[in-house]
């Protein structure tokens, strides 16, 4: 399974990349705003900085909701760097834009997906990735992981090439559940990725190794 980090914070992207297990980055307008990135020029500069850190797909989201403007914005984003994936919300004009982009070889990430039906439209439009939001479904007592599983099952049955990019991941257990559900990608906070490292038996076992070595070798 591929790991993307879900942030626009350059320090966190660098730290995740230095782990050696990072395959890409996803951003969204809220994550960009959180970093105080203001204006188109600064946004484009920031995306390029991310592309220089991580040699993998970087999702950059359009802010337009109108087909014509989405196309214009998405083509401009895609022209920034070969690793840029144009992120488009799963709305009517977004599906039309994804179809337009897929017919022209521009890779896309269909985002804000909360149902099998939305994921079906994203795949039929030729999206490169579909982003079901696991955490936000869990937040309303719905089953986000079950949605991931159903999308994987549907895409496998119909042999769609769209990759399932599990998003809105809240914790390490979500990552494990995405593995079990067969997601192609999980885009995660850094803490959730680092949480995979943690096990008390590893810590206690290493402490014993070191103590035994020190006891004999000084
Ligand atoms: O960036 C897309 C998605 O991962 C954001 O999810 O719920 O953490 O805002 P959330």
In words, what does this structure look like?
Belongs to the transaldolase family. Type 3B subfamily. It is an enzyme of class 2 (transferase). One of its GO terms (cellular component) is cytoplasm. Pfam families: TAL_FSA. Pathway: Carbohydrate degradation; pentose phosphate pathway; D-glyceraldehyde 3-phosphate and beta-D-fructose 6-phosphate from D-ribose 5-phosphate and D-xylulose 5-phosphate (non-oxidative stage): step 2/3. The protein has one domain: TIM Barrel. An eight-stranded parallel β-barrel has the order 1-2-3-4-5-6-7-8, surrounded by six helices. The protein has 218 residues and is of the alpha/beta class. Helix 4 crosses helix 5. The chain has eleven helices and eight strands. The structure holds SN-glycerol-3-phosphate (G3P). SN-glycerol-3-phosphate binds next to helix 7.
In DSSP terms, counting alpha (H) and pi (I) runs of 4 or more, how many helices? 11
Briefly, what CATH class? Alpha Beta
CATH homologous superfamily label: Aldolase class I
**What is the N-to-C succession of helices and strands?**
EHEHHEHEHEHEHHEHEHH
Q: Predict the CATH topology.
A: TIM Barrel
Q: Helical residue percent?
A: 40-55%
Relative strand content: 15-25%
Residue runs with pLDDT of under 50 for 5 or more positions = none
Anisotropy-based shape: globular
- Tell me the radius of gyration: 19 Å
Major sheet strand order? 1-2-3-4-5-6-7-8
Distance between the termini: 43 Å
Question: What bound compounds does this protein have?
Answer: SN-glycerol-3-phosphate
EC number: 2.2.1.2
Pathway: Carbohydrate degradation; pentose phosphate pathway; D-glyceraldehyde 3-phosphate and beta-D-fructose 6-phosphate from D-ribose 5-phosphate and D-xylulose 5-phosphate (non-oxidative stage): step 2/3
GO biological process, one term: ketone catabolic process
Pfam family, one: TAL_FSA
């Amino acid at each position: 399974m591929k790991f993307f980090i879900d942030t626009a914070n350059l320090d966190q992207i660098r730290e995740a990349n230095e782990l050696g297990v990072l395959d890409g980055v996803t951003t969204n307008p809220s994550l960009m705003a959180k970093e105080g990135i203001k204006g188109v020029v600064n946004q484009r500069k920031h995306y390029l900085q991310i592309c220089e850190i991580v040699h993998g797909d970087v999702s950059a989201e359009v802010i337009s909701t109108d087909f014509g403007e989405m196309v214009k914005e998405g083509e401009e984003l895609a022209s920034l760097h070969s690793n840029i994936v144009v992120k488009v919300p799963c709305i009517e004009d977004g599906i039309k834009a994804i179809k337009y982009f897929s017919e022209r070889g521009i890779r896309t990430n269909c985002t804000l997906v909360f149902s099998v039906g939305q994921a079906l439209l994203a795949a039929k439009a030729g999206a490169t990735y579909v982003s079901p939001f696991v955490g936000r479904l869990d937040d309303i007592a719905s089953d986000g992981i079950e949605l991931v599983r159903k999308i994987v099952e549907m895409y496998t049955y119909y042999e769609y090439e769209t990759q399932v990019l599990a998003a809105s991941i809240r914790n390490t257990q979500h990552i494990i559940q995405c593995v079990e559900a067969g997601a192609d990608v999980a885009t995660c906070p850094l803490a959730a990725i680092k949480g995979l490292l943690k096990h008390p038996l590893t810590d206690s076992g290493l402490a014993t190794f070191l103590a035994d070595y020190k006891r004999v070798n000084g």
